[in-house]
Write a structure and sequence with these properties.
Four copies of one chain form a homotetramer. Chain A is α/β, with parallel strands linked by helices. The first copy, chain A, has two domains: 121 residues, NAD(P)-binding Rossmann-like Domain (Rossmann fold, 3-Layer(aba) Sandwich), CATH 3.40.50; 174 residues, Dihydrodipicolinate Reductase, domain 2 (2-Layer Sandwich), CATH 3.30.360.10. Chain A has ten helices and 15 strands. In chain A, helix 2 packs across helix 9 and helix 6 packs antiparallel against helix 10. At the C-D interface, helix 1, helix 2, helix 7, strand 12 and strand 13 of C face helix 1, helix 2, helix 7, strand 12 and strand 13 of D.
């Protein structure tokens, strides 16, 4: 196959999940990733699949049909979290490369199973840790890897989400399993190859205290110590009035790097009240470059028949930290990670 | 035609010009603008056309073949400047919508002819003032239009190019006709609907003084007064050691707006020497969003059979200022614009 | 006494301690605080006192002589930490107003004694929490007090010191008792009137691991929960290569405030390597405004015969947190603060 | 005289002028410059002198008495502009060192006379170009002198004043003679030792058009070419809604430096409307460090019996540019500077 054929023949992708993030993924795949062609959409709500498929000239299928379809080479899973593992296994078993949104599963055993099935099928398995592909974070990682700040000693990663639209629908431990999971991956990645040693977490319902009894924790702070001595903090909150705020900071023996400033653009307005800069309002707005680049990586990995740069093992490692947080909140004590992912 | 057919059927674009900017445009059209399909490439240097066409699965044609080809709906002209007007006329006369790089022509008469031919043919004619489509500048324009700073009183726009690779190949007056032409459009657009009244320009060869005798001016400063009282400055230099630097500032009766900060990302490195941010190194890196969005606008205008938001008239207005600058440098005196484009 | 007499008659200050910070305080008092007149200096090392006194036209005395001297109205204590309490008691017992560097004492009982003696003598007792008087931090406090960010939910304060010149001379627990004590006061002050509930601290010797056995911890992270639900982190490190770095961040239900950017000035240098800003290299450089304003407050309190805005009670509250940290590090568990300062 | 005597014996200063800037100078001298002692104040309005003198424990005198007073060693002139030259001559003739606010005079002949009288009397003569002493600008100057940006090619300096309180009281040409005079000095100083070659200026009444007939121009733009090829712009406006805005930018063959960001502090507020920073509201707020340091320089020059770093010659050079601007506005043409100050 020549280069021009490669360009002429994008990877044919099926999308499972037509909710908010599924819609965003469809948009990114169709409009920003020339190496991908969105050919099919599946969703338990058939009309949602129909509508989204129609919008992008794709076919609406059931998940089973989608996995069976020989045209589909790769599957993007953006379904509800508790379906991730079943869908991943079904897709990989059918020989499809899989991109699965985070968290890949809710137990280590689930993720282990997904990893083995993908391994056995010889297909790529990528997890949706999009921050690694964002320009700011990628540049920070490169600088750290190049030794620009020496050995990391203090790290910080935070996620502040602009709004908690429907507190009633948020599953317990979401703050760790779905939100901070990004920060855990960021910290593990920026502090490579160090491994976490202990975890201490506190969490509370400060935004919507009336849902605390139902298990909703909307604010959390985590301390992680690593085997290279570094100490990290992670922070999350579900109601940032000023927009979607994701930042990281790594302080090392030779310097510091900060990533993220939350600005929508470099345009500054000066008026009677001072200087003003607009902030990004959603994860999609803040991370559109990362959402695009993670699919470019996925498509390239599929084409090149190689493992993507962020895999099921990374999903497992981040989950391990999230589970440690849950245990720490439940016991009120720090948790030592004894059997870690290697 | 249904929406999904519209998506399935992108506008088929032919590109004329396979040089540096032609390559960049091909890349943007093929990889970032799903509404466009690059189907043909033409260039006097047949092998350059062949290579670029091959890279994107397009056909290599001569310009005449490209204009005659019924598959081609729209033409992007990124050829040498002195061919712009001939190519634009040939393409529009053949009924193709045209996107022409700036400057659209080197005389007002040339541009007027292009405008009439396009008008007669009933096709879209867009000029490549990409800054209008850059996020920063678009946001500044929106804020000014919304009255955020009152009436503009002082404006500034500047272009500093990182390197003068081949001074011998730079045509005379390039600093006004090809570089500052962007700044003139920016100033006219940010100060809409005011019209320029007088122009004073100074220019010198500070980067490559040995080429001054040959007519190469690499550094220029321009003052423009407007009929709403506003006074603008424009600045250019061909050898910015720190990267590609484009910024604008508009001060008005109620505030100020600045656009552009030259940063590659929001990542900051702190080390023994202080705080450091990397700068953008090329126009393509700095303005990739603007280069993309200007083609989205072009494709949308073609589909919607409407005039694009930046047209031959804008090309004419900016050229008028550039020609005023040349006269001012030649006479050493300010120039009054008497017969302006309306 | 008329206003002009008040100006003509500054408060006569005696300084105890002629080390690094004593020298800085002498300089600030003599050159930046017109309401103060440095009249006497005492130090166990007589020659150091002699030299410093000579530099500013003051007399060199023993501490006892200084406390007995009727000319001395107020005493600034910048001696070694373990002498703070004895000196404070002697000075207040002699009827002098006292400004004592932090920490005011190393046990709560010591501080309680200083507070009572000062109370009995009816003299002002101020502790050297200079950050409260720094422009950035004062503005952040004012904005929070004005409700600009709603109820605090997440707080952060950090101190990174540029160098650990003499690790052998650093007493155990310095990171909590002398460095983070500033951050604890900052957090308590920015989250007023909430009270801390629990503390978890980790600390290590990452900068100078060879001194860990001797008890030197140079890197620490602390999590504090408050009775208004807010969760705070504090961080310290003794070897910031890029300068003296002190910042705070308060996230609330309605917004966020950040204070501190470590810049020496607003001058930016652009060169081949990007954009560069110089960083402040020492606490004195970074906080010269705070060091000045805290003495203005002290002198004003003495003149107006009122309590200063930051007192022994604040010193006690911050120490309480520092002691909680030490216990947490010793036990490896979070510590609940049961009997707090009220 | 030993060092400690030098400190004990500040330079005794008499202030002429008890208006807005005189009050500010008195405050700075009395509260921020330990090397100065304000001993006398004179003002044609005796009660203003009385009040200001009383506030700082100084004596109220007539100008003649002040110049005759043997206690007065140095005189600060902050009177109305048209009295500057007479007062400077009288003071220097009486053997006093003189610090004169800008402009030192309104004609070159006036300034020449002041320079000769001071020279004959052997006393220091300093002009109030305070920006040179501001941290930002001093750092920019140091970096340029150190070669950090190579040879200057493009310069910019601007002054935007927050309000035009009393347009009726503003003398003609104030924008050049009193406001931009600062920017001219800044440009000459940052581009040392180059000399200006040509000047082109435009000016208008955009803030208060109803005063244009009376000669009030409130907005101006100036282009200056230098004999090292550099081209500079200067800008002024009398009604910046967002505060007092003074910035400079110097672009050279090897880089760029910017000075000034108009921020009151490094505190950033984030809320529903984005990120916000407060701006400085007055020259005194923005430049308090420069106003202080220029008097430190004056006092040091007096003590060390040397010429200050900014003298009557600098006043003359800046005035020369201002007069060129006036001629350019009057003729509508660029002005060539033939007989320059050397």
């Amino acid at each position: 196959m020549t280069t021009s054929e490669a360009i002429a023949r994008p990877v044919r992708v099926g999308l499972v999940g037509a909710g908010r993030i599924g819609n965003s993924h469809a948009e990114v795949l169709a409009r920003r990733v020339p190496g991908a062609q969105l050919v099919a959409v599946a969703d338990p709500r058939g009309d949602a699949a129909q509508r989204l498929a129609g919008e992008f000239g794709a076919r609406a299928l059931s998940p089973a049909e989608l996995f069976d379809d020989p045209e589909v080479e790769a599957v993007v899973i953006a379904a509800s979290v508790d379906a991730h593992v079943t869908l991943t296994e079904a897709a990989t078993a059918a020989g499809k490369a899989v991109f699965c949104e985070k968290p890949m599963g809710l137990t280590l055993a689930e993720i282990d199973r997904s990893i083995s099935v993908a391994h056995a099928a010889g297909v790529a398995l990528q997890v949706g840790f999009n921050r690694r592909f964002s320009r700011d974070f990628a540049e920070a990682h490169r600088l750290i890897a190049d030794g620009a700040i020496g050995t990391p000693q203090l790290l910080r990663s935070l996620t502040r989400d602009p709004g908690l639209a429907n507190p009633a629908g948020v599953p317990p431990w979401t703050v760790f399993l779905q939100t901070l999971i990004h920060d855990f991956d960021t910290l593990l990645w920026l502090n490579q190859p160090a491994r976490p040693v202990s975890i201490y977490a506190v969490a509370d319902a400060l935004v919507a205290p009336e849902y605390k009894a139902a298990g909703l924790l909307d604010t959390a702070v985590v301390v992680i110590t690593f085997d290279n001595g570094a100490i990290a903090t992670a922070e999350a909150n579900f109601s940032a009035s000023y927009g979607y705020d994701v930042r990281a900071e790594v302080f090392g023996s030779g310097g510091m790097i900060t990533a993220g400033d939350g600005r929508r653009s470099a345009t500054v307005l000066y008026d009677r009240a001072g200087q003003h800069v607009e902030t990004a309002r959603s994860d999609v707005e803040l991370f559109i470059d990362g959402y695009t680049a993670e699919f470019v990586e996925f498509v390239d990995a599929v084409r090149e028949k190689r493992s993507p740069s962020v895999t099921g093992v990374d999903a497992r490692r981040a989950l391990e930290v999230a589970l440690g947080c849950i245990e720490s909140v439940q016991t009120g004590a720090p948790v030592r990670l004894t059997e870690q992912t290697r």
